[in-house]
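anyone seen this seq b4? input:
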Amino acid sequence: MVQLRPYLKSGCLEAGCDEAGRGCLAGPVVAAAVILPDDFEHPLLNDSKQLSAKVRDQLRIFIEANALAWAVAEASPEEIDDINILNASILAMNRAIRKLKIIPQHLLIDGNRFRNSTEIPYTCLIKGDARFLSIAAASVLAKTHRDEMMITLHRDFPQFGWTQNKGYPTVFHRKAIKEFGISPFHRKTFRMNELQLNLW
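predicted toks r here
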């Protein structure tokens, strides 16, 4: 496993930021911001997409207990429809940053696009969740908190299989949309027509 870096700028209080749920057909996009102590380490921490659900859940407990500060925020399906998924992802990240109980001196943003609504300097890092501990930690929190939300929503909408697909466009999910129509938590601007729901 590649060794993740503890920071980009030494001697600077950095917060890693990442989001989960951009590619989903339903549910919010969720972002997290995490400030880790200098001596933070965990042998399993990595980009959340590379981890099993069991490991992510274990890491969530460890990160929340050992981070200097962490916060999670979301943008709703309605906001996604109103301002598009990219802008909603950025909105959720800014919300998470503003919820931190400690103000960081620098932000590490996963990806290559960000619009900062704070006065905190930032650096965008492509594949940052596989390069920096704080972004990897944020990816774990964003993913686990979002999965938890989708499992809760599943109780009222079990026909879509959100406990399994978490709102992503699996064959089962697309078939359910064709059979039952969309729920109040589906993203209406994701053009769920016959072409996009093609069941190949």
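The first helix runs from residue 53 to 66. The longest strand covers residues 14-20. kinda curious what u guys think
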